[in-house]
Amino acid sequence: MDINEFTELLGYNDSPSYLSKSEFSRYPGYSHIFRKAEKKCSLRGVYILGGNDNDAVIPVVYVCEAATEEDAATLHKQVWNQNVVPFLLISTPKTFRLYPGFKYDSKSEESDTRAILKISKTTNQVLEKLSEFRADAIDIGRVWKKWGREVSVEARVDRRLLSNLKKLGEQLIKNDLPRHLAHALIGKYVYLHYLRDRNILSDRKFEQWEIEPRSVFGRDATPKGFFKVAEKLDEWLNGALFPIPARGKNAPCLRHIRMVASTFAGDHPISGQMHLDFKAYNFEYIPTETLSVVYQQFLHDEGREKGQGAYYTPVHLVNFILDELDAKLPLQKGRSVFDPACGSGAFLVQCYRLIIERELTQNPENRLRPSELRDLLVRHIYGLDVDEDACGITELSLILTLLDYVDPPDLEKACYKKFQLPVLRNQNIFHCEKGFFAPNSAFEENKPGKGFDWIVGNPPWKKLSRNGDEASDKAALDWMENYQKRFPVSDNQLAEAFAWGVTEYISKQGLIGLLMPAATLFKTKGKTFRKCFFSQTNMWCVANFANLRHLLFEGAASPAAAFFYSFASDRDETYHRIISYAPFAVNQSVRHDTNTRKRTKLWTIAVDASEIREVLRKDVISGSSLYWKLAMWGSFRDRHLLRSIGKSFPTLSDFKDKHGLFIHPGLELRNKKDAKDPVEYIPELIGNSEIDMRVLRNHRRIFSFPDESLKKVEPERAYVRKRGGMKPIKICSPPHIIIDAARRFAVFSEEFIVVPPRQLGISGKPSKANLLKALTLYLNSDFAYYQQFLTSTFWGVERDRPDKNDLEKLPIPIDLLSEKELKNWARLHDKIVRQEKKVRESNTNLSAQRKEEDKLNLLLSELNKAVYDLLRLNEAERWLIEDLLFVRMKLNEGRIPREAVRSAKVSEIETYAEILKTELDNFLDNEIRDQHKVSAYYSDQIAMIRIEHPEIPPAGPVSVSKITDSEIEKEFSRLRRNLSHSQGQWMYFERNLKYYEGRTTYFFKPIQRLSWLKSQALLDADEFIAEKLN
């Protein structure tokens, strides 16, 4: 079986998602990588995700051909170094082999042990063993279910290289080389190997410069050879990168240089024994963007990361931002790019490549002269940074990118003799110690007069202070003060200043794409910024990555968001709606099978249409964060519910004023000996109870405190901060409510209890005891939890701690209760407290405890029904609350809970279909209730809803069938084939796909429980009706 028969058997040849060699140039973001793989790795084709409507694609499978069985192992190593594709299929003379593209075991000499599958070249073997790699199986996501465990981000070449460089750095430091020089020496050797492996630093260059290669590389390296080649390269490439002193007390000696050189050659840096870690790397294949990973190491280890607010932007996130800009204004010759905080140049390198690739497609010979490449660089690419090393890395990365397109790359060709590589420093790449807000004259003189067409980047995220000693911070603070009325910034957040500042440098048609803190959309102090920013900019898209914060960035504590906008003096009415995209980890199908539910790092981002919302500009210019919160977690139904309840009832702030209640955060007891601030002795605290919150760590919705959570205040702890005053003491006096900071519980008590710090207390007069009990029930209700989650500033975004302001905005319906009803609520509270104690007392008998828990649950259901009835919520509104609390909220922090991803039960599919049918029938005609026939068909992985609108009702009842009948299977397959050419990969990009065929509509959905919630049925019905109306 030859390779063409092999791809035919896998269904690749007829798939629009399979790129043959003639199509490698179709996607500029990857074409240079595919060409390299074609030339060096015998690449025959690439199976991709996406690519139907734009240039954003995700390579999934390489199909390569090896001349021998041994060559397959070499190809695997080369593809692993490319760092772009998770799976590799290789055809050898005897076998077909499957390799993991992101894993490579350098210690294994046998190629067979590196392959995760090896099969004979027969039809049966291919169909049986590689069934998950068929085109239809990849399109529907089945490949990740079995093979997703092989996609290891930690084993990728950039992670392995960074880890090894760190270990090498530690050895150099232990051998008496200062940290900054150790990193400089390592950095220098990384680039020497880039140049050597790419034949830029060729044998001809060594001959010309009269340097022996062995004096630079390997265990025989010498300081003389190292410093001479460094000097020659600085002259040739027009810039000194990682300057290292050749002489002096701290200069690296022979021992240090040989330690690094021999380690890169494969020796172990300690014992001198051969070690294969570094032999695994081939810098000819490693993308230039890996330079950014190396720079990240310097930032982190030398403390610059924290001080300058910088961190490494993953390449797939860089591509995401560039793809969005490119879809709106394609980057091509004549359009310039600027990164105002360019770091190591990841954004600029990708932009430069994009321009080159576009030009190559216009060139009949599919190549550009060195002078043309130079012109594309110097006329289009600009960057600025406060860090001189960062500027140097950016410059060298851009030069390396230029040389990637030159043959030979060392420029040793007669027609290249007069060619000079460009000098980029302070012509294109500007080092400015005072940063972007005090650019030097060179920047002002050399920037394009018409402004930049693209401004991109990841500006520093820092809250600036006048106490800092960095010149760039002082310049930025001066700028903020000078422009505070026109360009307001909250909390001296530097990223916000950048978002404003770059608008001064944009061209008339120019676009901006910046990676910002997601908190910009939500924080309370950012209201003025949001109000002005969204009023003065033409914002068209915001991508909120809060749910992916632990999966996108290495060690990032703060979530990110990408802002896409332009700045125009005239309001463009096309921007009255803003696209909001908030991806959730559970929908990142390429991550791997969600049933494993592990929080592994992402290697790419897939945009799912079901996570896209529209936010009205007229709403966000109010400065409110609610609209962004609902775009992430809610829907227009949630918005309507919250608005309706908010208008109908007073807030807790107004309610407490009316009834003479007092709300305040708790107080922190201190030991006088350990106190750093002035303290005050409060003798009345002694002997009273305080709460040990550690005991309550795993408790949820309690109405009384377990005995073990209360302890007496000892005399030595009866101190509080003077600055705190006596106000917090008031909330400790009964009758009062103690509210958990995370809203897990609210407990009414008639005893003096010290409210802990960060928790909240509400106290009132003794006559208000029943009112406080009723309020306690309400605060423990599902609705209160739902309202607090959706309206609090950071809950579900960055930290799960709503604050006092969030609580005081909670609508309170308690005043609707009559005196009799208030007493009934108080009695219900007391019954729940008594029943809760029975549950605790029965903990020694499991059977008895379950019976008592069932009784408690009935009382809690009675509580929620009472609240729902008081708020006058209908059944559909209750579904919204229950689905958010018991399923959707569990997706917080990028989690993948079993309840969300398990297969839906038949009863759940049937309930979904009944709700869908009811909503559609009710919309058309209240008199004729049976106008839609809804049928559900499901398999182990996907399901299909068929909605028929017969001309003559009744349509008949809902039906649910498993796909076992041959006729149903045939119909299902027919529809799947029709989808394959337009929306065949719906599982990745549109997990709620609709397909229209005459008077019949089909919904395609994953079988995951998340897709079959009652609230989802409501939303699907709403969307179906809206599309029909349009």
UniProtKB/TrEMBL annotation:
Gene3D superfamilies: Vaccinia Virus protein VP39. Keywords: Methyltransferase, Restriction system, S-adenosyl-L-methionine, Transferase. One of its GO terms (molecular function) is N-methyltransferase activity. The keyword Methyltransferase applies. Residues 290-561 form the DNA methylase adenine-specific domain. This is SAM-dependent methyltransferase. InterPro entries: DNA_methylase_A-5, DNA_methylase_N6_adenine_CS, N4_N6_ade-DNA_methylase, SAM-dependent_MTases_sf. SUPFAM superfamilies: S-adenosyl-L-methionine-dependent methyltransferases. The keyword Transferase applies. Belongs to the N(4)/N(6)-methyltransferase family. It comes from Desulfonema magnum. GO terms for biological process: DNA restriction-modification system; methylation. The lineage of its organism: Bacteria, Pseudomonadati, Thermodesulfobacteriota, Desulfobacteria, Desulfobacterales.
